[in-house]
Design brief:
disordered N terminus; Maltoporin, Chain A; 22-stranded antiparallel beta barrel; mainly beta; 899 residues; 5-stranded mixed beta sheet
Length: 899
């Protein structure tokens, strides 16, 4: 029996046995009114730099408690995507730690690009996280997660156009405490975590926590190498709190986390049309089908003619020619079976012939000093706070990004490579003797055999990043005024070393390396005024001024030889000299790209953003507000590309957002129902648009300011307590986006080149138009051994898209210059509609000595929903469409001991 299947069955059987055993020892009736029960609690949040009741805070905010985080199985950033309205995102392809987060449909672009800032602020205990890289590691010691939706242009002003997410950790406790957890589950999952609180005195408290989590691969590898999507991560955290007196608190924390895993299994789903075929494709030029038979028919025609030529002796039968013919036969069989339709089913295998791992190593120090002063005269009660943060990240992503097994053993070679070798065998290149072309074709076959594989697209990145931040706050209150004043400073620096191999051996290695850095400082103030102590009105105004500087030094290297493989062949340059298999080797051996390497650039930015809010308390339990707010995301340089046409770095300006929002927060039905609702509309100007482009035959991402979007939406959060033993939550979000401006596609041909306006064809990205998430907590029964409790949570969402538009320029009309001349918009693979269902059945509060034990069985994606989570298109050159998928059903059991 397969070990993974057996593990799953054991866990399922354990789940059933636990439920039956628990019910036999419990009293048959539900808990009585004087027994354990739920309540809709007052939730304290710090979204406005002070402790406030969630219901009295005029913001669209979702707060998840420590219990909710545990019950819903929230371990990483991606788990938040189904836990709150208006939240979506994806894990970047060939990366197990770089997370793109979108709030209200506002995302960040390529999460694996070190030169791109996130569009939504991420904070841990007030320390800003500067990049999207490394966000996928497991969280530790969380007391609360606060998700703020809408531009946060004042208190969280830097790069918070869509909102901000605050992770608040549990502080050391004043008495000895211990929490231990051991978990096991399907696919060989094992998890161990623990926390211990050790107070050394009444005013010096410490805590230490550690965890490790492992799981086998979800998908096997057809090439015989390592599989895909395992889990191997660990971390620890130390925290200390010193309270020398009643007014001063000093909090220090150090955290360290590591991850070393195989990346996602990408699926090659379909082909773009061939160059000439784009002109006759259905929907040209605005919705050209990606499920196109043109490439299949091209290889079939070459193979048919080649086989006949071998049969009749027109081409000699040699090991190289025989093998080339077999490669075409194998490719046709593979393409016919795997790429003739668009499917949402991943299956249980993936393909990668090269290294495909991701590693993250993060660590950080934070120091928070707080001094509370009561009654400072006209300033009222004041707290002065200093938040200092330093963080370092090392991130590597070694990815085979084509979704194919291109080893010699598999026989599946890239279709463009087959066309090129076939063209040489048929002497199709003008001006070159037929015998020379024949020798060239044999040479390419020999080179592929010597290497053992022929990569379609392989990318390896090593990113080092370091950041420092300092924030000073003065937060105060009088009878009628609440205020916050602050200074913020941030600087960071990064190094990217990479190399990419595309269409081996047709093109050479290219390393678009760079160093980048930035500094930012800002001053902000927010004031809330009440006309009187008894007044139900509150008026808030906030403003923030920011200055930033961004720098980049381009360090691109390439072994690209004029004429690519043909030029190298005639120059007698060994193929091996054109390729490197690691970023370190690339940096050590590859020549500098003339006119690019070593050039440095700098840009300065400044911004004024803020908000104005009017709030009114209709009663003690019903509050409403209206807000006008602005936000921005910093500009900079895209280090991965270079604007060769204009001989300069690829730079982009900041983007701006203006938002209006009205909301209501109500506790109804004698505190048994809570309804929070917000309607919003925003305009997104100078939007930073990420697109794919090719540079020296290598696909890179580009960023430009050419977007404008108008959107409106609705968010609802309903909490209901029908009985004291049942607590229900329902979240709903609606988003309607209308893209007004988007980069047009303009053909490269200088004379007679065509252009295609694109804004009307842009898809709504990342957040679906309709999204629902739900959660139910039910205390089933109480007995002498503890409480039997059930949590069921899940989410449903409509179809959406990961990328706004797939547009490319085709060389569809042959001419003497052979320049691209035809813009076309490709059909997109969608992020599927899906319904995800999770559950946890637990026997809690089992008394064990002076502590308590909880035993719970859980399952995630219980419906085994097979769904795409992201897709991308490699364009006209490579012609491939790829997708990655969500995890299948997983099951497990937890043992949690608290003392």
């Amino acid at each position: 029996m397969d070990l993974k299947l057996r593990t799953t069955r054991v866990v399922v059987a354990t789940t059933s046995a636990l439920a039956l055993a628990a019910l036999t020892v419990f009293t048959p009736a539900l808990a009585q009114d004087d027994g354990p029960g739920y309540a809709i609690e007052e939730i304290t949040v710090t979204a406005q730099k002070r402790e406030e009741n969630l219901q009295e805070t005029p913001l669209a905010i979702t707060a998840l408690s420590e219990a909710a985080i545990e019950d819903r199985g929230i371990k990483t950033m991606t788990d938040l995507f189904s836990s709150a309205p208006g939240v979506a995102g994806y894990e970047a392809p060939s990366s197990r730690g770089n997370i793109g987060v979108a709030l209200r449909g506002i995302g960040s672009g390529n999460a694996s690009n070190l030169s791109i800032d996130p569009a939504n602020g991420m904070y841990v205990d007030g320390v800003y996280l500067g990049k999207a890289m490394g966000l996928g590691v497991d969280s530790m010691d969380l007391a609360r997660i606060e998700i703020l939706r809408g531009p946060q242009g004042t208190l969280y002003g830097r790069n918070s156009t869509g909102g901000a997410i605050n992770f608040i950790t549990a502080k050391p406790q004043g008495e000895f405490g211990l929490k231990l957890q051991a978990s096991a589950g399907s696919e060989g999952m094992q998890e161990f975590k623990g926390r211990v609180d050790v107070p050394f005195s009444e005013n010096f408290l410490t805590s230490f926590s550690a965890q490790t989590r492992e799981r086998d691969h979800l998908y096997d590898n057809t090439s015989g190498g390592e599989g895909f999507e395992n889990i191997d991560r660990e971390g620890f955290r130390f925290a200390a709190r010193w309270e020398p007196n009643d007014s001063v608190t000093v909090d220090y924390a150090f955290d360290h986390s590591e991850m070393d895993e195989e990346v996602q299994a990408l699926d090659m789903v379909s082909f773009n049309p061939v160059r000439g075929g784009v002109l006759t494709a259905d929907g040209f030029p605005t919705n050209t089908s990606i499920n196109d038979p043109g490439r299949f028919n091209t290889i079939a025609a070459i193979q048919g003619g080649f086989a006949q030529s071998l049969q009749f002796g027109l081409i000699p039968t040699l090991p190289q020619t025989t093998q080339f013919n077999q490669w075409m036969v194998d490719w046709l069989a593979w393409a016919d079976a795997n790429a003739t339709g668009i499917s949402s089913s991943k299956g249980h295998i993936g393909s990668a012939e090269s290294t495909h791992t991701s590693t993250n190593e993060n660590e950080g120090h934070s120091l928070t000093l707080a001094w509370a002063v009561d009654d400072m005269g006209v300033w009222g009660d004041v707290e002065f706070k200093s938040i200092t943060g330093w963080r370092e990240m090392e991130n590597t992503n070694f990815g085979d990004l084509d979704g194919q097994d291109n080893t010699v053993d598999s026989g599946i070679m890239f279709h463009g490579l087959l066309e090129a070798i076939g063209g040489a065998y048929f002497a199709s290149f003008p001006g070159i003797p037929a015998a020379t072309q024949f020798a060239l074709a044999n040479s390419m076959v020999d080179q592929i055999n010597a290497r053992g594989r022929a990569e379609v697209f392989n990318s390896q990145q090593i990113n080092d990043y370091e950041q420092f931040s300092q924030e000073l706050q003065m937060v105060g209150s009088t009878d009628t005024v609440d205020y916050a004043v602050g200074l913020f400073y941030f600087d960071d620096e990064g190094e990217r070393r990479a190399n990419s191999i595309a269409t081996y051996p047709l093109s050479a290695t290219f390393a678009n390396n760079y160093d980048n850095s930035g500094t930012a400082w800002s001053i902000y103030s927010q004031v809330t005024w009440l006309p009187s102590v008894e007044s139900g009105w509150a008026i808030t105004g906030g403003i923030r001024y920011t200055e930033e500087e961004k720098n980049v030094t381009q360090l691109h290297r390439s072994n690209a030889f004029p004429g690519s493989f043909v030029g190298a062949f005639f120059a007698s340059v060994p193929f091996d000299d054109l390729y490197t298999d690691s970023p370190a080797e690339a940096e050590a051996t590859m020549p500098e790209v003339a006119g690019v390497f070593g050039r440095s650039y700098s840009q300065d930015f400044d911004n004024i953003s803020g908000k104005f809010t009017v709030a009114y308390n209709f009663s003690d339990t019903v509050n409403g507000y209206a807000t006008y707010s602005t936000g921005y995301r910093s500009g900079g340089f895209n280090g991965e590309a270079f604007d060769a046409a204009n001989d300069r770095a690829v730079q982009f300006d900041e983007e701006d957002i203006t938002s209006a929002e009205v909301g209501v927060k109500a506790d109804l039905w004698d505190g048994r129902m809570r309804l929070n609702a917000a309607y919003f509309a925003y305009t997104y100007d100078d939007q930073q648009v990420s697109t794919l482009s090719e540079e020296n035959g290598v696909v890179t991402s580009r960023t430009s300011n050419a977007g404008k979007t108008e959107a409106n939406g609705l968010e609802l959060e309903l909490t209901l307590l029908p009985t004291e033993n049942l607590l229900l939550n329902l979240n709903y979000s609606y988003l309607n986006k209308d893209t007004k401006e988007f980069p047009p596609l303009i053909a490269a041909q200088s004379a007679g080149g065509a252009s295609l306006a694109t804004a009307e064809h842009v898809k709504d990205g990342l957040l679906p138009e309709n999204q629902i998430s739900f959660n139910a907590d039910w205390t089933i029964a109480e007995g002498e051994y503890g409480l039997l409790m059930l949590n069921v949570n899940g989410a449903w969402q409509e179809e959406s898209f990961g990328i706004g538009l797939n547009g490319f320029i085709y060389n569809a009309i042959p001419d003497a210059a052979s320049t691209p001349d035809t813009p076309a918009i490709m059909e997109q693979l969608s992020i599927d509609e899906r319904t995800l269902l999770n559950a946890r059945l637990a026997l809690n509060e089992i008394q064990v000595g002076n502590g308590s034990l909880s035993v719970g069985v859980w399952g995630r994606n219980l419906l085994d929903e097979d769904h795409r989570t992201f897709s991308f298109n490699f364009g006209e050159g490579l012609g491939l469409n790829l997708a990655q998928y969500g995890e299948p059903s997983t099951y497990g059991i937890d043992f949690i001991y608290r003392y």
